[in-house]
Write a structure and sequence with these properties.
Layout (H helix, E strand, L loop, with lengths): L1 E7 L4 E3 L9 H11 L3 E5 H5 L10 E5 L12 E3 L15 E3 L3 H7 L5 E7 L7 E2 L8 E8 L10 E8 L1
Parallel strand pairs: 1-6, 1-7, 3-4, 3-6, 4-5
Antiparallel strand pairs: 2-8, 7-10, 9-10
The structure holds NADP nicotinamide-adenine-dinucleotide phosphate.
Pfam family, one: DHFR_1
InterPro entries: DHFR (IPR012259), DHFR-like_dom_sf (IPR024072), DHFR_CS (IPR017925), DHFR_dom (IPR001796)
Family: Belongs to the dihydrofolate reductase family.
């Protein structure tokens, strides 16, 4: 099963200058809860945005068209979606964590969407791709808790393909 996991602002912005445009620790916690123990798939640029290399306690699968691109162990590199089954059981949950190019590559086969909607406008240079939400059903929605460390209004949503 393929899932998407991402956070976007009011204008669907997801990235700026190779980083996330915001700090939202509660969203980082949700990210962790939804990915620990699973396989995560990411683009080369998203991988390079992690300051300490592969994320622990998850199989990190990095996509690049450059077959010589070096990832830090224990991450693995794939050059094409078709290589995914070499590393993961396709019946287990595989969480695609972006960025936009990687969401594009998986959009026709994604089953579940874990989305954080941040009700704020940020400067950005990467946006989430268009998804056809009529093909998905909202199965969970939860307002995010705001505090001194989580200063933007946000909502967690989960959709399942109909
Ligand atoms: N808000 C969020 O939830 C969220 C989530 C993820 C990322 N982001 C942000 O988004 C930005 C990065 O996203 P991005 O869209 O620029 O880059 P990206 O999707 O992370 O990476 C793009 C790279 O992935 C490789 N790639 C793309 N499609 C491929 C395919 N079909 N097969 C094999 N390799 C493929 C290529 O690598 P090569 O050039 O090496 O061939 C391409 O340059 C950063 O700012 C990051 O912080 C935000």
């Amino acid at each position: 099963m393929i899932s998407f996991l991402w956070a976007e602002d009011k204008n669907h912005v997801i990235g700026y200058k190779g980083r996330l445009p915001w700090k939202l620790p509660n969203d980082m916690k949700r990210f962790k809860d939804l990915t620990i123990g699973k396989s995560i798939v990411m683009g080369r640029r998203t991988y390079e945005s992690f300051p300490n290399g592969p994320l622990p306690k998850r199989l990190n699968i990095v996509m690049s068209r450059n077959s010589k691109y070096q990832v830090k162990e224990p991450a693995v590199l794939i050059n094409d979606i078709s290589d995914l089954s070499k590393y993961v059981d396709m019946n287990s949950e595989i969480v695609v964590i972006g960025g936009s190019k990687i969401f594009e590559a998986f959009k026709d086969i994604v089953d579940r969407l874990y989305l954080t909607k941040i009700d704020y406008e940020f400067k950005g240079d990467v946006k989430m791709i268009d998804l056809d939400y009529s093909k998905f059903k909202l199965i969970e929605k939860e307002g995010g808790i705001m505090d001194e460390k989580n200063i933007y209004p946000y909502t967690f949503e989960t959709y399942q393909r109909i």
